[in-house]
Design goal:
- The chain is of the alpha+beta class.
- It folds into two domains: about 40 residues, no CATH class; about 90 residues, 3-Layer(aba) Sandwich (Aminopeptidase), CATH 3.40.630.
- The chain contains five helices and six strands, in the order ααββαβαβαββ.
- The strands form two sheets. The protein has a three-stranded antiparallel beta sheet with strand order 1-2-3, with helices on one face. It has a three-stranded antiparallel beta sheet with strand order 4-6-5, with helices on both faces.
- Strand 5 and strand 6 form a beta hairpin.
- The radius of gyration is 16 Å and the shape is globular.
Length: about 150
């Protein structure tokens, strides 16, 4: 089994080295390859980076399956927007672009979670059609359709 991005601690110095950055990208890509066996507790995921030119705006992960822990707290799709790029619509755009990819992976609907007090994330999920199921452990759990009807 090759290196997996989640198996290692990556730091800025490594990412600035072109060879190490290429290794990081390969490791991230390998996590989507369902023919590769992953360490226990991990699931295959498709990771997308969102950029504006060469400026990194955020990252989105589409988990192909759910472990019991992900079903409880994490969900199928997780995203983060760089602090200086927040409140500019990037999370909404990222999620909108992720839903058709999730549908292609056979995920419908997708589970998304957010902190109960995180109004911005809640609004992003609701704008994508998220239906609130419940709150568990301080997290709101939404089911979002991935297929256009």
């Amino acid at each position: 089994m090759g290196a997996h991005a989640l198996d290692e601690d990556w730091n800025r110095a490594q990412a600035e080295d072109p060879a190490e950055f290429a290794r990081l990208v390969d490791a991230i890509k390998s996590e989507a390859d369902e023919t590769l066996e992953l360490p226990p507790g991990l699931v295959h995921q498709t990771v997308l980076w969102f950029t504006d030119g060469d400026e990194w705006l955020g990252r989105l992960s589409i988990r192909h399956d759910l472990t019991p822990a992900l079903l409880e707290l994490g969900g199928h799709i997780g995203y983060v927007v760089r602090p200086s790029a927040r409140r500019q619509g990037h999370a909404t755009a990222m999620l909108a672009q992720a839903l058709p990819i999730a549908a292609e992976l056979g995920i419908d609907p997708a589970l998304l979670t957010c902190d109960a007090d995180h109004d911005a994330s809640r609004k992003v999920i609701e704008a994508a059609g998220g239906e609130l199921e419940d709150e568990r452990h301080g997290k709101l759990r939404f089911w979002v359709p991935t297929k256009v009807s």
